[in-house]
Amino acid sequence: MELPFAEAYKIKMVEPVRRSTRDEREQWLKAAHYNMFQLKAEQVFIDLLTDSGTGAMSHRQWAAMMTGDESYAGARSFFELKDTVQAITGFERFIPTHQGRAAENVLFSALVRAGDVIPGNSHFDTTKGHIESRGATALDCTIDEARDTCLELPFKGNVDMQKLEQALAQYAEKIPFIIITITNNTAGGQPVSMENMKAVRCLANRYQKPVLFDSARFAENAYFIKMREDGYRHKTIKEIAREMFGYADGMTMSAKKDAIVNMGGFIATRRADWFEAAKNFCIPYEGYLTYGGMAGRDMAALAVGLDEGTEFETLETRIKQVEYLGRKLDEYHIPYQRPTGGHAIFVDALKVLSNVPKEEFPAQTLTIELYLEAGIRGCEIGYLLADRDPVTRENRFGGLDLLRLAIPRRTYTNNHIDVVAAALKNVFDRRETITRGVRIVKEAAYMRHFTVELELI
Ligand code: F0G
What we know:
The chain is of the alpha/beta class. The chain folds into two domains: 175 residues, Alpha-Beta Complex (Aspartate Aminotransferase, domain 1), CATH 3.90.1150; 251 residues, 3-Layer(aba) Sandwich (Aspartate Aminotransferase, domain 2). Helix content is 39%, strand content 12%. The strands form five sheets. The chain has a five-stranded mixed β-sheet, sandwiched between helices. The model has no long low-confidence stretch (mean pLDDT 97). The chain binds ligand F0G.
């Protein structure tokens, strides 16, 4: 008999989680203004809000914490991390930051000006926030197929080359760089193919534009290239990562994802001009250049995490768990962004709650229903997250409206995943009875989904 798949680790430390009653959850959620970010973590049974900073570190990472060098300047942990980053990415210039958005803040302070246009594939919300708050435009050039959640495409995170070329022709002088997000989080944790990265690089060269990778989940992207793209099956994840980064001028990194640390990030680049300009913003915003917002011990754990996070077994265990949830949802005929992505399942709320008008935020309504059902915290990646158009101030109802179930790395077992699937099925079975959503009571101008206050209609 063929042996079933099992995790490539065993568990050494555990943390209790608590179930709650529906009455409790109704009170808690009302007090939280129906915003998942406002709940206390102890009010959550299974937390799928994000896979960011929520993974379980390995014994090697915890051991590294003890050997971190806490010197203000020139810490050994900085140089060890810098060497690891260079070995994995090929970028020789490195600036640590406290997380991914801090890397964006530092680098974009140097590169982005009012009136600029930055084309890319579904900029993540903090990336978009850092562009729009500087008076620039984040131009989404993702392939149209990504908007059809039923389509099964191996690389649904890709950049549409025609859209990109049109943007380059139209805005030439206004484009400081092109950004590729790997994997494409907003489109459903969907990967970008090596072929697509290569094509973007060629086009960028023609227009003499640099290319920046938003690399939060680059290792998952490399895993998909290995499994789905011709010619990569026999390459290691590290070899694939090196080739990917070969098509970029630099990267911003949220290390809280594929490097499996609770906090950390960085900028790495081959360009001296980017490095010199960004350094000037690192010191006031983040800290001195050899720690940039991280403790020495955090840099030490990050170096190990980068190494482990780019091992095939780590990625296989992780992505197979996401697939496992996908298969359960298939069994129950629940629609989600297909095929299953790297870090999460994105449930297509417009298809599930088709009786809830767009203006009443169907994905947020589904997120609320799932929490009330079983204390499972998902995250709306939809019309709330999309913010208002910076010019017209209208809500942006054009894109997808998804409930993201992000799976933390090495944190939950497949029993937890079974509970998630069953709870979602219960909501799905009574979907016809859900006809009203939520209205906004209070919202911020940018990145409103973190603090928005809602009420049930
Ligand atoms: N880029 C991508 C693609 C991301 O997914 C994130 C964060 C960031 C940049 C910013 O990094 O959080 O370290 O400042 N994504 C988290 C998420 C928050 O839940 O998807 P950060």
